[in-house]
Amino acid sequence: MRLRETTNGGSQTTDKKQMPDFQYTAKSMSGEQVTGLLSADNESAAASTLALRQLFPLKIELAEAAKKQERFRGRRVGNRELATFYSQLADLLRSGVPLLRSLELLERQSRNQSLKLVLADVRAEVSDGTRLSEAMRHHPRAFGDLTISMIRAGEEGSFMEDVLKRIATFTEHQEDMKSRVLGAMTYPLFLMLAGATVVTALMVWFVPKFEPIFQKFEDKGELPFVTMAVVGISHFIGNYGLILLILSAVTGVAMSFYGVSEEGRLAFDKARLKTPLIGRIYRTLAIARFCRILGTLLKNGVPILNSLRIGKDAMGNRVLSGAIARASENVSAGKTLAHPLRACGEFPEETVEMIAVAEEANNLEQVLVEIADSMEARTTRNLDLFVRMIEPIMLVVMGGIVMFVMAGLLLPILQSSSIL
Predict the structure, then answer these.
(1) Residues in CB range of 73: below 8 A, 6 or more apart
(2) What are the angstrom distances between the C-alpha of 226 and each of 92, 199, 405, 412?
(3) Alpha carbons 291 and 343: distance in angstroms, whole number
(4) How far is CA 54 from CA 18, 41, 279, in A?
(5) How far apart are CA 288 and CA 174, in angstroms?
(6) According to a count of CB atoms within 10 Å of the terminal CB, is the N or C end of the chain lower?
(7) Whose CA is closest to 132, among 86, 192, 169?
(8) What pLDDT was estimated at residue 171?
């Protein structure tokens, strides 16, 4: 429930401009939580007004400060900076430095402005008695569900330092994997873009300069088929290239809007999994990420159902997430995890078998991390092999297209030279 009130030490007034606005959170006598805006001379006057209205204030702050706080609560912080923060916080806590003092030190020394603002807000909430995990929850773009769940488990089990170190290691590992994948795909994409640019330039600017010469051969009926094809393609690009470009842009925008919808996301996720070669790599990486997150959470004392929910959301694919959701329902009914994973058909048989054996041996968390290590190592090898294969293939394709264009340009000239 939200309220808007104006008071001056408990008495109402119509002169709202002379008093600052306070945003408050309070509880009523029935236990209902109430939030709203309150104009008052100061915090004490606002608290008095809430007391007169039989509301117990939980938090009172200037509305302007609250708005400013909400603005930077949406800030995103890079994973590299977060990994360093987790590691440094773990070292400080292990050395006996209190949590508030540790947050203050890390806030002061941080060179990343977004991280500095986030830490300032987290420290302020912790100093008010809020648990670290709850303070981090107010910054969803900086701290994910995985981090918050692990820190909550560390708070409850009194092993915060170990949890922070594991989060730092996990974050670094995920970032390294992402960088490796992006780095492997950079060169092939560059080759594709360069090849398309060269061929377009040849067709648009180079081929038309030879058309007066080709016209003489065409009048004699001696124009080779290859040359006719090159000229036809050049005319098509020249006449309809702009239209094709606009249609491509419109299609791209339409696909992006479709991709935002639930139906579109599901369709794209299915397409990613079915794409030859790339789909297999994508599937393996998603499953490896799920296994690592699930194993890490279980190792840190997070209940399996909550761990499955976080792992499901972190997979990044709705088809695979749906399979995990169905598996969660079976687990909540008292069944094993391996059976529904095998039934969904989305997980490799050897992975499911390892999970089944681990459940029987009661070391699921350890085996899941080992599965993730194995799958990521295998995926890295497959990705490197894919990149090594695609580079020469793209070079041959580009060379073939350029040779086709050059043959179309030079063949009439070579034929006329042989006749002479």
Answers:
(1) 118, 121, 138, 139
(2) 72, 16, 8, 10
(3) 17
(4) 26, 20, 60
(5) 11
(6) C
(7) 86
(8) 83
Kindly state the average pLDDT of the residues 65-81. Answer: 62
Radius of gyration of the chain (CA): 31
CB 7 within 8 A of CB 13: yes
Closest CA to 26 of 47, 56, 4: 56
Residue 246: count other Cβ atoms within 10 Å of its Cβ: 10
**DSSP 8-state code for residue 261:** S
pLDDT at residue 177 above 80?
A: no
- Helix (H) or strand (E) segment spanning residue 36: strand 33-39
How far is 269 from 254, CA to CA, in rounded Å? Answer: 17
DSSP summary character for residue 38: E
Distance of CA 172 to the CA centre of its chain: 15
CB 99 within 8 A of CB 164: no
Q: Tens digit of pLDDT for each residue in 296-329? A: 888 877 788 888 887 777 677 888 888 888 888 8
pLDDT of residue 417: 61
pLDDT at residue 197 in the model:
85
Report the distance separating Cα 294 and Cα 351, nearest Å: 14
Mean pLDDT, residues 236-243 taken together? 85
- Inform me whether the pLDDT recorded for 108 exceeds 80: yes
Q: What is the number of helices (H) and of strands (E) in the chain?
A: 17, 4
pLDDT of 138 higher than 60: yes
**In this structure, are strands 33-39 and 2-6 parallel, antiparallel, or unpaired?**
parallel
| Both structure tokens of 200 | 């377009």
CB 39 within 8 A of CB 21: yes
Q: What is the pTM of this model?
A: 0.60
